[in-house]
């Protein structure tokens, strides 16, 4: 495990020191604020690198919404056989290139960074440099103070009241932003039908379980790590707000709200593709082509047509 994480220690410490150098050159006076801003800079760097993955997550989420009518049909057809239903759903996802667990990927990929930062700060608190940090950097991080609390200390191991207050405030901020971010996604960017089934259960588990997990474990995290995760949640919240407003998933309240905004401002209103899939427009009746007739058949029909025209003329003369 240490061999796997060692490169991350160097990467995290290198980014931290880069931002620390930048804010020092800018002229930030307080060493505590320099380290806080450096941790925020680390967060921005990591989240910027994860943007391509976030775009893939959004595309996968939209595909999941568009596949809901087909998934409903599979549930009706194989509802009595869970194994067959799961196989058919996996087959459908594979054919359409959809990953139902793509929403977890950004979180899972951030966890090694999270633990690497925890290790770097935790070792600095013990006076042990890790990664590219030297003894001077470790001592500076150990003694750095933010709003009266030491960045490298945790709620559990600190005897300072200010550190405990700041640590508990950051734990609450981390949990609240985590809950709001997930709730924002479910309330605005998921159609009503998608709030049932395995995908919805996954989202609900993330909604309620993650804040509880972070609340329980957050008291053992250094304040610097809590800052990292809170800033990351704020980034996710802003990123989701932008995407939900500009490119909402079909069949959702956010998509309907965008249609109303576009109509209000005179822009072209995009039709909801999910509604078109569920309620397709009826095809116009096919035009009947005249049958191919032989020359003899056309000759037989000509006298009949002439006799009908003559009868019409006679009736017209009598009137």
Tell me about this structure:
It is a single chain. The chain has 319 residues and is an all-alpha fold. It has one domain. It has 13 helices and 2 strands, in the order H-H-H-H-H-H-H-E-E-H-H-H-H-H-H. The chain has a two-stranded antiparallel ribbon with strand order 1-2. Strand 1 and strand 2 form a beta hairpin. Helix 6 (105-125) packs across helix 7 and helix 6 (105-125) runs antiparallel to helix 10. The model has no long low-confidence stretch (mean pLDDT 77).
What share of the residues lie within helices? over 70%
How many distinct domains?
Answer: 1
Low-pLDDT ranges: none
Overall body shape:
elongated
The percentage of residues in β strands lies in: under 5%
Secondary structure class reads mainly alpha
Q: On the 0-100 scale, what is the average pLDDT?
A: 77
Instruction: Tell me the total number of β-strands.
Output: 2
